[in-house]
């Protein structure tokens, strides 16, 4: 019994884990890190290397022992200062820009309790860019037994494995499935902390001090590659490769992959292919290399080899845990790359299958859905999209339906979106039913089917509910478009002088009538809220149209889809999600976004006259906005120069600039008109849609001499490829 009790006490002692960290000015990131280890560790030791913010106070609030350390450009020295004070049997080390995964927090004590190893590897998921582009996955030694001999070495990219193996040449390590999330490579964090320049400076110093250490050259190459300096990176990687034995060097597989990436960046494709084949001889299970082999083969024009390599990569799946990889290698990234390759080979059916597999591998992935819907629209199979969705995807949540509706709308698959809405359970209550009717109306607007859009809007207007005013405004806008189209056609029909004169008189009468209607409309709006955009359409781009207010808008109609996809929930059940006033949704349909919807409808239905008129009017507003904003800035600067003291100058300048901007807005025709970037994007999207429409007409079958025979245009494959590659929403915007 006594022996069992001692064994139990030793087992309990082995559970003790010390978290050791080094921080400097990490008040924004530190709380998330410390919260992530709550309950997973027994003590926290934070070595502060000179913070000027609240980092130390935050650490103490979470129960940490804070140690002040004078920074000496040596990460290993700072880490070891924390180890000297650690009392746990295991050491876990994290950085402030990291967080222990929730599952790992539950598992970590089980791993330390049963492990006979000297150290455990955790998988670091490094998020780069905006954090939405996936992650690289690196197995890294982060949990090891506490011993006086176990101390870090290395001025930067400090290591602990060498010390463990020196103490025990038979040391054993195990790769776990625990995850640490690392956010420090996201662009905003890298730029704020100037990490790359710091790392390069320390690594250059380390190379000078220990030029025979390949790990220093390797890490310096990584920093060069991160900043796009491929030539310098390749040189550093080459020096490291000459010094290592790939069979026993833990990072050798990464070194080879990074060399391949450098050669790809430099477009030295034959060398890249040679290097990747050499690496595959050493690391045949490393899926990342097979994926890059496909990229090189495609660049060299060998699409068959590229396809074979990608199919081999997905057959292999993600590489074994000992390899550093990128999320999606052998799964969704490889499937997506295969889809793009097959598109280039005009195997559209195969491409769709590949994209479906990509979504299956990662359900939250958007780009494959955009490609699927575009392919089916361009190839004339849009009517099959609802059946494809039903058979290949699990649409078992409101979020999934909302996402698909939004992507269909942004991909120009309006008919499919309408069919999908029509297949939803019927809505019986008033407001949700009207909301869905408005959503359907806007899909018809973008299709250019004014008649069906008007029928939906008139129904909503008659209900006199929450969306009646919105419907009324859009009915007037559609009426204006039809009048413009009719007027344009009348002008074109006049070939003789008398007919020209009659047409001009008719147009003048029409403009006078529009002016009277606009005045009546304006008077009516003074009572129910001014609709500056509709006034601008009817009266032309005139000063004093409306107050300029920038609106934070969502892409396309995605903000509307979430509510349009809802069923019969009552306001009591979902009061927080229910629209309670017109102000909450009006911004989705005003200003440049309304302009964009009208442009899209004209482009998709081939209404050249109306499209031309809208684009001209839009360009005029852009010019006015640019001129107005520039004038406002110049006037405010002049007032600053005329102010008395410097302090008064600053104060008056700030106030006057705000006043001038407000005055500038008052001169613009509708709210949000000063957002010239959004306006330009709307015009470009309209032009692209128009080009797509006319290419589709060119690509359509034409009548052939003979009974009922038709033939395909000889340039059909080229035109189809152009349509597939036209700029547009692709799911990568986030």
UniProtKB/TrEMBL annotation:
Annotated Gene3D superfamilies: Spore Coat Polysaccharide Biosynthesis Protein SpsA, Chain A, Tetratricopeptide repeat domain
Superkingdom of source: Bacteria
Biased composition, class Basic and acidic residues, residue ranges: 485-525, 632-660
Residue ranges of the region described as Disordered: 485-530, 625-660
Domain Glycosyltransferase 2-like: 18-107
InterPro entries for the chain: Glyco_trans_2-like, Nucleotide-diphossugar_trans, TPR-like_helical_dom_sf, TPR_rpt
CDD domains given in the database record: Beta4Glucosyltransferase
Name of this chain's protein: Glycosyltransferase 2-like domain-containing protein
PANTHER family attached to this UniProt entry: GLYCOSYLTRANSFERASE, POLY-BETA-1,6-N-ACETYL-D-GLUCOSAMINE SYNTHASE
């Amino acid at each position: 019994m006594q022996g069992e009790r001692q064994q139990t006490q030793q087992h309990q002692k082995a559970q003790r884990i010390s978290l050791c960290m080094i921080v400097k000015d990490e008040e924004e990131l530190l709380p998330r890190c410390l919260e992530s280890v709550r309950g997973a560790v027994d003590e926290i030791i934070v070595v502060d290397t000179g913070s000027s913010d609240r980092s130390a106070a935050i650490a103490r609030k979470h129960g940490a022992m804070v140690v002040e350390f004078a920074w000496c450009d040596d990460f290993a020295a700072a880490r070891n200062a924390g180890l000297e004070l650690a009392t746990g049997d295991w050491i876990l080390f994290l950085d402030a820009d990291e967080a222990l995964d929730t599952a790992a927090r539950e598992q970590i004590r089980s791993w330390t309790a049963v492990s006979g190893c000297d150290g455990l590897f955790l998988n670091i998921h490094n998020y780069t860019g905006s954090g939405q582009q996936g992650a690289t996955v690196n197995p890294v030694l982060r949990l090891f037994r506490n011993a006086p001999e176990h101390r870090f070495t290395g001025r930067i990219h400090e290591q602990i494995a060498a010390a463990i193996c020196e103490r025990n040449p038979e040391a054993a390590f195990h790769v776990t499935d625990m995850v640490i999330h690392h956010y420090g490579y996201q662009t905003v964090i890298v730029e704020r902390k100037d990490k790359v320049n710091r790392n390069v400076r320390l690594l250059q110093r380390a190379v000078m001090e220990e030029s025979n250490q390949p790990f220093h050259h390797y890490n310096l190459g990584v920093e060069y590659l991160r900043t796009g300096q491929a030539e310098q990176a390749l040189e550093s990687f080459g020096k490291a490769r000459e010094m290592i034995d790939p069979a026993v060097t833990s990072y050798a597989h990464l070194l080879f992959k990074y060399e391949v990436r450098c050669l790809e960046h430099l477009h030295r494709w034959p060398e890249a292919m040679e290097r990747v084949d050499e690496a595959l001889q050493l690391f045949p299970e490393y899926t990342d290399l097979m994926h890059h082999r496909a990229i090189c083969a495609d660049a060299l024009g060998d699409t068959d080899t590229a396809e074979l390599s990608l199919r081999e990569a997905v057959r292999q799946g993600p590489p074994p845990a000992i390899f550093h990889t990128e999320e999606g290698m052998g799964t969704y990234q490889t499937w997506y790359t295969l889809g793009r390759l097959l598109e280039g080979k005009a195997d559209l059916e195969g491409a769709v299958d590949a994209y479906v597999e990509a979504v299956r591998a990662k359900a939250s992935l958007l780009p494959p859905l955009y490609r699927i819907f575009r392919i089916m629209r361009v190839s004339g199979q849009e009517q099959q999209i609802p059946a494809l969705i039903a058979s290949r995807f699990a649409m078992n949540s409101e979020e999934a339906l909302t996402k698909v509706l939004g992507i269909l709308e942004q991909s120009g698959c309006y008919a499919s979106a309408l069919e999908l809405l029509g297949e939803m359970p019927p809505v019986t209550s008033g407001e949700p039913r009207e909301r869905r009717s408005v959503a359907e109306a806007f899909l018809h607007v973008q299709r250019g089917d004014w008649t069906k859009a008007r029928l939906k809007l008139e129904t909503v207007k008659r209900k006199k509910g929450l969306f009646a005013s919105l419907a009324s405004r859009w009915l007037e806008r559609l009426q204006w478009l039809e009048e413009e189209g009719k007027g344009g056609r009348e002008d074109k029909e006049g070939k003789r002088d008398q007919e020209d004169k009659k047409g001009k008189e008719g147009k003048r009468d029409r403009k006078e009538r529009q002016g009277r209607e606009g005045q009546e409309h304006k008077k009516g709006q003074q009572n129910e809220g001014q609709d500056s955009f509709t006034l601008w359409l009817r009266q032309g781009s005139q000063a004093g149209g409306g107050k300029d207010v920038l609106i934070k808008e969502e892409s396309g109609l995605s903000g509307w889809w979430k509510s349009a996809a809802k069923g019969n929930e009552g306001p009591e059940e979902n009061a927080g999600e229910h629209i309670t006033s017109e102000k909450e949704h009006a911004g989705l349909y005003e200003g440049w976004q309304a302009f964009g919807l009208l442009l899209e409808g004209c482009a998709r239905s081939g209404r050249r006259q109306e499209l031309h008129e809208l684009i001209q009017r839009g360009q005029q507003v852009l010019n006015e906005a640019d001129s107005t904003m520039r004038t406002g800035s110049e006037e405010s600067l002049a007032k600053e120069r005329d102010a008395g003291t410097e302090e008064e100058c600053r104060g008056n300048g700030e106030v006057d600039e705000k006043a001038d901007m407000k005055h500038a807005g008052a001169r613009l025709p509708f709210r949000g008109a000063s957002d010239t970037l959004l306006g330009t994007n709307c015009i470009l999207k309209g032009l692209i849609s128009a080009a797509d429409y006319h290419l589709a007409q060119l690509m359509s079958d034409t009548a052939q001499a003979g009974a009922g025979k038709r033939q395909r245009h000889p340039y059909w494959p080229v035109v189809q490829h152009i349509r597939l590659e036209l700029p547009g929403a692709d799911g990568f915007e986030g």
